Every structure is written in structure tokens, then in C-alpha cells.
């Protein structure tokens, strides 16, 4: 058995088996059925060793994270995840690494009801690329370009935990024992807000997922929607673990600049704000209103208690 045949063995059977997959792994291409009245949503994410993860990171967690970050992009579009393709570049064939990576990938794919429908393997520096495809009722995908002046800005969950997890792994920040599991979980095993993303289809005017940090990410919505934004840093949702581990200014710094939280950032027009709590409470994910969309295109204002908040932005780099 050749090396690459061996590798393909780990990915031959996928997590979920979907009835809308005509041909999956093993042919020259996959054949997929897109339901009548639905649009196909496609997204790609790459994770490179030394840039996005440590080469000796737990391969099972990497398999999970690769699926979760791709599915998170689908969630941000309001799409239902369906299919995954994998492009794997490996420096050598390590069966223990491969079987753990595949296990993490398969169990997470199954959790999100995604089927692995193909891929490619090459030799080179360790790099993981995934293409995720999802479906959304025609015209209902949520883009970054629909925010209007006066819309309320919301985020799901809590912010800054993954950035603290990275700093804990790097040994540059202490976290008390009782919070370590939570913080490391948030960094290594992010959740994609899939059900909530779909529930936002008829509520949100724009949405995206938080991969690079709120301060950078919201500027994508501002640019695509040609608007500005005003954020009250006092309203940023911070976990107890983050608050107990950092002084207040550092906690806000991590919540604004820290990447990889994979929470959803979205805007809601005033008229639809009333239905938000009712429609979204079944999902059990906390929502926080952190500000408003403003008319000054490209201007991001940070406030705290009605005062200008002094903030020096340092972009999120995974390893710095
Ligand atoms: Mg994204």
C-alpha cells in the first residue's frame, strides 16, 4: 500500500452520510444535489503550522478546529453546513498523528451533519486547507453588506477567551487552575454558532463570524455596508474566567483584538429588535448588544460610559 493510499484510508469514510450526496470520496469529483429553491454557499480556510497552530498541537483538536472554523463561516452566512473537502500537506506520514487528526475531523463533521466528499494530499510543510459548502434558502444568505445607520450591533457568547487561551499556551499569561479548562477549551475546541446563524436569516441585516478579533472584523461590515460603528466597550461580554485572569484594561484589549472566538457579530434594525429575544432564546446562547451603526462611513468609535475610550490597536497575530 502506497503512502497516499494509506492517508486516503483515514478519510474514506466521513462523519455524516447525507442523502443529497450522489458521489462522495473516491471519484474524480464529488456530485452533490442542491435542493430546489436553495443557494450554495462556499468558503475556504487554511491553517498553517507555525502560523495558526503549534506543530506539536494535539492533532485531534486540529481536526476539530479545521471543521469548526469552516462551518463557522457558513453559520455567519445563515447557511446549513453540508459538505467538506480537505487538502492536506504533510511533511511525513505519521500514522498516530493521522488517525487522531481524522478522528477529530470526523466527529466534528458528524456533529455538524457535514459529509467529507473529497480532497487531496501532498508532501510539504504541514498545512491544512478545507473547503466547506452549505445551503441556504434562495436569497436568504446573510452578507456583510446589509447594515444600515441606526442598526444595533450584537455579538454572541463571550469575547477574548480564545486569545487568553493562546497566551496561556505560549506561557505569557497565567490563568488560575479553576478556569484553565474553560479557557483552553475555547481556544482548541471552538463552537460554530450554526443553529443561531440560521435563526438570524430573517432578523439580521448583516453578519460575520469573529476570527480576527472584533476591532478588525467589524471594519469588514463597515466597509461592505459603507457605514460607521460606535461600540460601548463597557458592554463587551467577558467571561468570568477572563475577568478573573486579567485587569479590566487587558480584558477589554483581548475582547477587542483577540481572534479565534468564532462568535457571531451581527446587526439588527430597530424594527426587528423586539423579536430578537423571543426568537433566539431557545438556542441558549447569550446575546449582547454592544453598540450602533453610524452614518460616518469607515469611522469606528469606542466609548465607555459616554466617554471616548483610549485604545491602541494591536492586530491579532496567532504567534507573535
Ligand atoms: Mg469569517
UniProtKB/TrEMBL annotation:
EC number: 2.7.4.16
Record-linked Pfam families: AIRS, AIRS_C
Domain PurM-like C-terminal residues, every copy: 149-296
Annotated GO MF terms: thiamine-phosphate kinase activity
Ligand binding (ATP): 119-120, 144, 211
Signal peptide: none
Gene3D superfamilies: PurM-like C-terminal domain, PurM-like, N-terminal domain
Binding annotation for Mg(2+) 2: 45, 73
Keyword Metal-binding: yes
The entry's keywords: ATP-binding, Kinase, Magnesium, Metal-binding, Nucleotide-binding, Thiamine biosynthesis, Transferase
Catalytic activity: thiamine phosphate + ATP = thiamine diphosphate + ADP
PurM-like N-terminal domain segment(s): 26-136
Residues that hold Mg(2+) 1 according to the record: 44-45, 120
Binding site for Mg(2+) 5: 212
Annotated positions binding Mg(2+) 4: 28, 43, 73
Record keyword Membrane present: no
Annotated binding of Mg(2+) 3, by residue: 28, 73, 209
Pathway(s) served: Cofactor biosynthesis; thiamine diphosphate biosynthesis; thiamine diphosphate from thiamine phosphate: step 1/1
InterPro entries linked to this entry: PurM-like_C_dom, PurM-like_C_sf, PurM-like_N, PurM-like_N_sf, ThiL-like
Residue positions binding substrate: 52, 260, 316
Recorded family membership: Belongs to the thiamine-monophosphate kinase family.
Miscellaneous field: Reaction mechanism of ThiL seems to utilize a direct, inline transfer of the gamma-phosphate of ATP to TMP rather than a phosphorylated enzyme intermediate.
Function comment: Catalyzes the ATP-dependent phosphorylation of thiamine-monophosphate (TMP) to form thiamine-pyrophosphate (TPP), the active form of vitamin B1.
Protein name in UniProt: Thiamine-monophosphate kinase
Organism phylogeny: Bacteria, Pseudomonadati, Pseudomonadota, Gammaproteobacteria, Chromatiales
